[in-house]
Amino acid sequence: SKELGRNKFRFYNSQMSEQNRQEMLLEERLHHALTNRTLEVYYQPKVDLASGTLTGLEALLRWHDEVLGTVSPARVIPLAERLGLIEAVGAQVLDKVCAQLAAWSHLDRVPVAVNLSVLQLHSDRFLAELDRCLAQHGIPPQLIELEITESCLMPERADAMLALLEAIRARGIQLSIDDFGTGYSSLAYLRKLPLNTLKLDRSFVQHLPHSAEDVEISLAVLGLARGLGLQVIAEGVETPEQANFLAQHQCGQGQGYLYSPALPAHKAAEWLTGQAW
Ligand code: C2E
Ligand code: CA
Ligand code: CA
Ligand code: CA
């Protein structure tokens, strides 16, 4: 009936505005967090699979908001991208990482990897901001690694991206491809890029060594990396069985809950001083 139709319309309408309200609250809280610099960075250890020793740390965004509670980066990052706030979020993460590395200057430091959104790499200001941040905190570029995803490597921008990645590498900053194997970058293009490391995506590691397909994919990635002179780090290593399989097949490094989740800086520091083991 007509009446029913109208009610249905109202229902959708109020659902829409509820969604808008949620989005507006998130936006407001994210602005608040950026202004008050309350976004946090946690650090997940990367280890040498053969020896179990620390090789690096990955910086991961954490947001505990007093109104919204904990909001996961899988939610924050796409939101920041939609709202045009990703440069500000990325700049705050990088600044906190550099400040932390400076505070750790009396320790035996390892490189810290920072995740980048493709939108950050498309900004003209990115490289200048990166230089400024490193200089401000007195951080040697060798202590920074950037993790980019295959979505950064879209063919339309291939030449500009190649030039940018070369400029980054020329500074001594390390470059890795995150979630490797889940995107669609062509191997011909990949070969031209000045990369250091492929990060084998967790989805391929998860069912090792029981899934025959995942075994084949992992071995193919390891073979490809060896051929291109790249390192491999396996993500999401959760069991000794996975770690053993990967180590046996010359995967250099691993990262995952088997070793450690992402930790607040003071806990991550225990890994730098060797107290964690
Ligand atoms: P990612 O870069 O692939 O990071 C790995 C994610 O897997 C992290 O989730 C980490 O906590 C989680 N993880 C690590 N080891 C294990 C494991 O053994 N098992 C399982 N199940 N999970 C594991 P997190 O911190 O929630 O981050 C999710 C994603 O958000 C990241 O995926 C990254 O794409 C993005 N992200 C996080 N921080 C930043 C940032 O500062 N900037 C940008 N652009 N993206 C970020
Ligand atoms: Ca990453
Ligand atoms: Ca990843
Ligand atoms: Ca991922």
From TrEMBL:
Residues 23-276 form the EAL domain. Transmembrane segments: none annotated. This is diguanylate cyclase. It comes from Gallaecimonas xiamenensis 3-C-1.
